[in-house]
Amino acid sequence: MKTEIIAVGTELLLGQTVNTNATFLSQELAQIGYEVYYQSVVGDNESRISELLEIAVDRSELVILCGGLGPTEDDLTKQAVANYIGTKLRTDDDALEKLTRRIQSAGRVLTENNIKQAQYIEGGEVIKNDRGLAIGSLTKYKNVYFLLLPGPPSELKPMVKTHVIPKLIELLPNQNLLTSKVLRFYGLGESGIADKLNDLIVAQTNPTIALYAKENEVTLRLTAKGILEKENLALIQPLEQEIIARLKEYFYGYGEENSLSQELFKLIPKESIIRIEDYFTEGRLGLSWQKVITSQASGVKLFNQNSNDELVLVDKSGDIVPKPYTTTTIKKIYSDDLSAPSGDIHITVLGDQYLEKSGQFYEAEVWAIISLNQEIFIKKSIFANNYDSVKNQSTLDITAFLLSVLKEQEQKANKHSQNA
């Protein structure tokens, strides 16, 4: 079904508010088979809203308007749509009762402008607002549906997920369901992944393949269309397996909201201790991990020591180790760092940074040294970009390195238990 999203609000045009609702709606609609063809933003002006409606009804089957359902004079969306289709506004009794209770409990008097929040377009269907007071509505005019939603994302998102999506699924003529799986990759860019999957991308029908390049990683969405979710997942499975087989060394997990750090801490036992000596990322590595530790309440203890000063390496004889470093040299120096209890992790990050003549372009040689379970793991990486990008990319790279080390350790442990 051809869909159009109109965000209403002068604050959006002035750049005072970011239009996150359009992004959220587009993602949710795509999941159930609605195709968003157009998006627009209009200020709190009834004549301009009407102009957009005139355009929208000629090209779309579902027109979604976000915002402008509140109690103030510039909340004009409901009235603009009602005037456009030649009908009136009605008051929903349940919404009015909720509104009255809320206002009286706050010691205020119910005014006429407050009642606007309980009104909907005559002939339409009321959509409950579980988080706020301004109700939504769904109205059909000729061959076009008008869906009115509140502007605050804290109200719009739960309304869409709980009440709107089920209604929209019922409107679809063929009742097709879209099912998606999101695969996440690190260490290979969008063009590299596209090249390795070129034959699959060219031949795609159902399911489809969509690549999205994000900062320092790539996500890949597989989407199948069918009647039942079970059938869709069966369509996705062989394609998913083939893709992972080709990109195994870069694949790290699933999900829209996932991250390397989240996957990492799934493998770190609770009550483990991590010690970081960071001489390059300026504490970004530890900070990114601490956020996940806090959000997951994992019980992992993180000790993060960071310094902008360069660490001077010395060997067992007390002599300064000359640069450039080598893996062999670093392994010798850190071979004594094997006394930590089993399961505890000690990480040292070293880096040399060189500024190019442009004054903005940096090249950095970064070493990550991991001590875990009586073993030393070392990785050298070269990064070239602006200052912040080099720091952020090295943070992700070290996270990915530790994740790969832990996966290898887990595989060894599983193999050992099977052979025992």
Automatic annotation (TrEMBL):
Gene3D superfamilies: 3.30.70.2860, MoaB/Mog-like domain. Residues 4-171 form the MoaB/Mog domain. Transmembrane segments: none annotated. This is Putative competence-damage inducible protein. InterPro entries: CinA (IPR050101), CinA_KH (IPR041424), Competence-induced_CinA (IPR008135), MoaB/Mog-like_dom_sf (IPR036425), MoaB/Mog_dom (IPR001453). It comes from the Bacteria. It comes from Vagococcus coleopterorum. Belongs to the CinA family. SUPFAM superfamilies: Molybdenum cofactor biosynthesis proteins. Pfam families: CinA_KH, MoCF_biosynth.
